[in-house]
Amino acid sequence: METLMEMLPIILPLFIIQLILMVTALVHVLRHPNYRFGSRGIWMVVVIVLQIIGPVLYFAIGRGEED
Amino acid sequence: MRAYAAFCNKEFMESVRTYKLFIMGAVFLLLGMMSPLLARFTPAILEAVAGEMPEMVIIIPEPSAYDSWLQFFSNIGQMGLLALVIVFSGLTAGEIGKGTVINMLTKGLSRGTVIFSKLSAAAAIWTVCYLLSILAAFAYTAYFWGAHETHHVFLSFFSMWLYGILLIAFVIFGGILTASIYGSMLLTGGVVVVMMLINILPGARPYNPITLSGENALLLTAQRTVSDFAPALIVCAALILLLTAGSVAVFNKKQL
Amino acid sequence: MDILRVENVSKSFGGNKVIDGLSFAVPENSVFGFLGQNGAGKTTTMKMALGLLKPDGGEMYICGEQVSCGQTNTNRHIGYLPDVPEFYPYMRPKEYLRLCGEITGLSNDIIKSRGAELLALVGLEGVNKKIGGFSRGMKQRLGIAQALLNEPKLLICDEPTSALDPIGRKEILDILQQVKGKTTVVFSTHILSDVERICDRIAVISKGRLVLSGTIQELKARHRADGLTVEFASPGDLDRFMGDPHVAPYTEGAAQNGLGVTLHVNDMAAAQTAVIETLAQGRILPLKLEVMEPTIESLFLEVTK
Q1: What number of H helices and E strands is found in chain A?
Q2: B147 CB neighbour count, 10 Å cutoff
Q3: What DSSP character marks residue B63?
Q4: A8 or B125, which is more confident
Q5: Quick check: is C200 in a domain?
Q6: Are C83 and C43 spatial neighbours (Cβ–Cβ below 8 Å)?
């Protein structure tokens, strides 16, 4: 069985993309306090807890209109 | 033609500036990378769990490239398509609901062009992101299992692609019909549920477009033949044409 | 030629008849004020002219071509400013104008030059932020710029000033004043002072019917005032004037107001002669002698009550 260190370069890109997705959404939640519905707290939880689909939901239906 | 190009261009700009492209790209890249990894390590994880419970005997076959593609199609077919529908749920609904498209129409943009450009732009984004996930999955699968035997490669991937286009057509149709994002999502979700129910009837199965997102891995390993997929492909293509024509017809009649 | 012709148009929403046999025409090169109370059917009429709503009966013609709902051919003659214009919030003003221009089929050079011209006209030159961050007045001004981009024969503005503060209103009216002569303007409103400032023709609708239409001069002439006001320097002058038998035929029903009196007359010329003779013979020197003009407001109130 491979050690974790050996597998790291393979798994790492996955975590990095996931992190980028989450951080981008999180930064947007914090910097744009207008949401179509819900509050900052709710969207922070959604974006952090729900992997992948959380940021999708936020950008698709939670994000406010004004840029 | 110029209006079509201009409106497509606007759709792409919108996708970039409202993070749609970013989200789609990231999600599909993730799914592409994740599937082979899951296939590779699920047995190891299960073994570790089972090892703590000696009374349980789990026989786990050695994972293969086939498991990787099984994972891939299942992830794209569920999580990927869900993301696709959510991301594009506001494609037509948002513009009609908010009234941004009215200004375009009063400029002489034909309503058919609105539908066609939205369909093309969404289809292009879906195509690129889907290709991205296929490439990632290929790279990881080849890394873990080396060269492996595959059949009907094009058709396996094409079927899922066409099914994705069908969902986009439903999202557009739902948006035109209800002028609401939730209406658009509900209609598309409802149709998927109906297709799942239809799948219970044995005779209907080969014609059901949902087959195109469920049995791709079987096609890839030659457990299904092209003729098994052909009826569903034809039904799916016909539905796409019908929905698009229907969207234009309904939109033309729609009072704004 | 008539730029816009509305012939016997009707429209109901549910069981509610919003427009009821409406007919009027807008001649070329006029600024046409389309008046009515809130809910009188102004927006509905305009949306039907743009092919956004389908009339239940009757026809509409733009530059002689019939409007058909859902089709957009006639829209190439029109620039439209909705009451609350909605733009793509992620675009910048120049990008939005370019999109509009490409859709209308203008060449890139024209889009660039006219776009810059129009942004200067509406005072948005050098504004490069996204439209999402615009104020209401800025959006309204961008709305005018996009409406004028294709040099339309007809500019339709739906309540362009209603939602704005006095400064914003003045800016919009100034812009409309500037395009007067280049294009025919139809503009709906319920603000009567705006109409008097820029319109030369009006149509007033009430409960979906046309109740008054014509040029402002015509209307004022037709509803010729029957009032003649004389104002005096002292109560003595007023009494002497009112007591004079010469003006007795006109003083019945006269409304006295402080040192002034308003006579209601049928024959203005005869009455004016009589009044002036009386004043001259009695050596009464008035402070003011005025023929009362009807205001748009009084006409509006008269026809919509």
Answers
A1: 3, 0
A2: 7
A3: P
A4: B125
A5: yes
A6: yes
- Domain identity same for C109 and C158: yes
Q: Which of C177, C203, C221 is the last residue of a domain?
A: C221
Residue C76 touches chain B, beta carbons under 8 Å: yes
Contact B181 A61 (CB under 8 A): yes
Interchain CB contact of C80 with B (< 8 Å): yes
DSSP H/E element including C221: helix C216-222
Report whether pLDDT(B28) > 90: yes
Q: Does B86 touch chain C (CB under 8 A)?
A: no
Q: What is the pLDDT of residue B58?
A: 65
Mutate to test the interface with B, among A3, A11, A17, A53 (most CBs of B within 10 A): A17
pLDDT tens figures, B170-211: 999 999 999 999 999 999 999 999 999 998 888 888 899 998
Tokens matching residue B204: 């209907």
Q: So what's the pLDDT on residue B240?
A: 97
The answer to whether B21 faces chain C, any CB pair under 8 Å, is no
pTM of the model: 0.85
The verdict on residue C298 lying in a domain is no
Residues C205 and C237 reside in one and the same domain = no
Quick one: average pLDDT of C1-13?
91
What's residue B45's pLDDT?
77
Those residues whose C-beta lies under 8 Å from the C-beta of residue B50, and which sit 6 or more positions away, are B56, B57, B58
**Closest approach of C139 to chain B, Cα-based (Å):** 13
- C59 lies in the same domain as C130: yes
ipTM above 0.90, yes or no: no
What are the pLDDT digits (tens) for B232-247?
Answer: 999 999 999 999 999 9
* Chain C residues in contact with B3 (beta carbon < 8 A): 102-103, 105
